[in-house]
Design goal:
The protein is mostly helical and 257 residues long. The protein has a domain of 98 residues: Tetratricopeptide repeat domain (Serine Threonine Protein Phosphatase 5, Tetratricopeptide repeat), CATH 1.25.40. The chain contains 16 helices and no strands. Helix 3 runs antiparallel to helix 4 and helix 6 runs antiparallel to helix 7. The termini are far apart.
Amino acid sequence: MGAMPEDLDARLRRLRTSDDAGALIDLGCDLVAVGRHEDAEWCFQQATGLGDAAGAFDLGQALAARRRWDGASSAYEVALANGDTDAWRTLGAVLEEQGELDAALDAYRAAAASGDPEAAAVVACRLWCTTLDPALEDDLRAGAEHLPAARADLGDLLRSTGRSPEARWVLERGAKLGEGVCWLPLGNLYADELDDVESAEEAYRAGIAAGDSYCHHNLGVLLAERGDLDGAVEQFRYGADAGDSLAVDALRDLGEA
């Protein structure tokens, strides 16, 4: 059982003038667990001021959880300066949230260089999306077991280089593993190359259930081609409400915007 609020307050008072970074971090984590974020951040800040890399990392995590991106990125940079290379990947994620995509890619590359396989997978995905370079196949294969998006991108690469049967196998495996990002490209493969509209519909609906709002547009297109305009409009509206510009355009083309 965790500490009661009174115990947390007593510990907080006792550590107000403490130089025990470990105790401050432990208390900060307990405070986060009960939703006392400002007190938790104070604890992590104190530990950071004592030169503790873990305190700086935890401060970054606490600030990122509250979408305070500037403070989070600064905290991660302090953690890195104090020797915590695990902060590279989290710094990359925060920089992405701030729209600093080039800096984010550099951070992911640094994480990959330090031996982080998930960061290496992120780098491979970013490069594939911007270059569509088939030479990234080995990197995407290596990343597929660490990042679902890498498996989805590997399927895209295989399909674009004329290996649709293997692409199908890769994407179906991802779907069986519960990787929601694989359903949309799998549905597209069924619809566009295998002429299997029933499987395509099932894939798009599975993708929607997994939280991929972009599947609404593709399902809408399939329903429209089948002549189910009411069903198509319904799917386009769901997609538009989720922010999919293709779904918005589809509604406009049907005079439903």
